[in-house]
Amino acid sequence: MAAVYALGLRHPIWQWPRPGIADRWFVLAAAVTTGVGASTVAHRLVASFVADLWLGRRFRRLLSPLLERRRTRWEKAHKLAVDHEHEPCGTGHAADRNRIALARPRSPTWMGDRSVALETRIRGEYDLDLAAAWPRLWLVLPEPSRADLRAAALEWQDAVAWGAWAVLYALLALAWWPLVLLALLSWSWGVGRARSAVAKSTDLVEAAVDLYVPELARKLLPVSGEPVVDPAVGRLINTRLRKGG
To answer: What proportion of the chain, given as a percentage, has pLDDT over 70?
Structure first.
């Protein structure tokens, strides 16, 4: 019995004294704080999942039929663009191909392909390892260019946040079905903003490479005058950045 008294259980729970106003506010504040913390952690975890899903990093085997469909459509559009390259309709066929993907699809999603195509196009044009070059290239970019890239990154983060809330709303809709509408609206808004952010960021990165890789070459390589960045120079930059690795 002494142990029961020590735990404060001398009386049955229905005989416990009612908490005072201060105690009630403390319990409410603790509950709200715990709920906010849990929802924040859940939102971050779901946001990471949504970002990977949009970029085609999740369920690749499950989504492989979608990738094959995208490849088939792209190859047909590419053939039309090549066959009619010197005809008035060639521009339209090229635009149709680029709306599917800027390079042969390697991801089941449009956003994933747009990101992958960036590296493919830069490798094809300059034979440059973008992943290795980008941190150094960032250092030579003027501040307005950096600001534009930061704005695109913030737009992406905002879009992913909307997508994560949409997933959470959909889960809560299991208990209260009207939240389905809110989930659909949030998801649609998030996808639209995400596509816009990916298009902006990839265009800006490609433009930065086109405009400022010569400056990077001047700083990294023993060249004089204005270097012409071609695949040979790109390979020299790769070698310098990898430091023989």
So the answer is: 82
**Is it the case that residue 110 has pLDDT exceeding 60?**
yes
Other beta carbons within 10 Å of 75: 14
21-46 burial: b if 16+ Cβ within 10 Å, else e: eeeeeeeeeeeeeeeeeeeeeeeeeb
Token pair, residue 31, equals 């509950």
Tokens 């609206």 map to which residue? Answer: 185
**Residue 23: is its pLDDT beyond 70?**
no
The helix or strand, by DSSP H or E, that contains position 41, with its residue range, turns out to be: helix 21-54
The string of DSSP letters for 157-208 reads HHHHHHHHHHHHHHHHTTTSTTHHHHHHHHHHHHHHHHHHHHHHHHHHHHHH
Characterise 231 by phi-psi region: left (phi > 0), alpha (psi -120 to 50), beta (else). Answer: alpha
Per residue in 167-211, pLDDT (tens digit) is: 988 988 998 898 899 999 999 999 999 999 999 999 999 999 999
H/E segment holding residue 210:
helix 179-220
% of the chain beyond a pLDDT of 90: 53
